Amino acid sequence: MAKAKKQKQKEMTEKEKHEMRARRQETHKSKLADAMARLTSKFQTFGDDAMLDEYELCAYLGRSVQWARLHRINNGEGGGPLLPYRKIGAAVRYRLGDIKKAAYH
After folding, report:
1. How far apart are CA 12 and CA 15, in angstroms?
2. pTM, 2 dp
3. What gap in Å lies between CA 76 and CA 82, rounded to an integer?
4. What is the pLDDT of residue 105?
């Protein structure tokens, strides 16, 4: 399976690679914009008890989703205090009040 994927990537032209990167960037920007809108709504409704997903957390902190994942996996090493999180099934959630305490105190 991985071999077929590598072969397909080799066959892609530079233009196709550029278009694929541009699509990914647009998708990422769209997800962050949606997350910011949800974050605003959650904050108004729940205040510090709002539970944020990764995209909402990153929109709030101005960081990338990759940073949040690596930060969580590496227990906060390499940049700032460990941000407390909760696992709900497979989902990772961050309580806004806990993030404020950890990030700003």
Report:
1. 8
2. 0.69
3. 4
4. 64
Q: Where are the chain's structural domains?
A: 16-104
Residue whose entry in the numeric block shows the structure tokens 């278009």 = 19
Query: How far apart are the C-alpha atoms of 22 and 100, rounded to whole Å?
Result: 33
- Write down the residue that tokens 């990153």 correspond to: 58
How does DSSP assign 58-72, residue by residue?
HHHHT--HHHHHHHH
The residue type found at 34 is D
The CA–CA distances, whole Å, from 16 to 1, 24, 25, 97 equal 21, 12, 14, 43
86-88 vs 51-52, strand pairing mode: unpaired
Please identify which residue in the block is written with the tokens 């950890």: 102
Q: What is the pLDDT of residues 40-76, one digit of tens each?
A: 888 889 988 999 999 999 888 888 888 888 888 887 6
- pLDDT of amino acid 90: 92
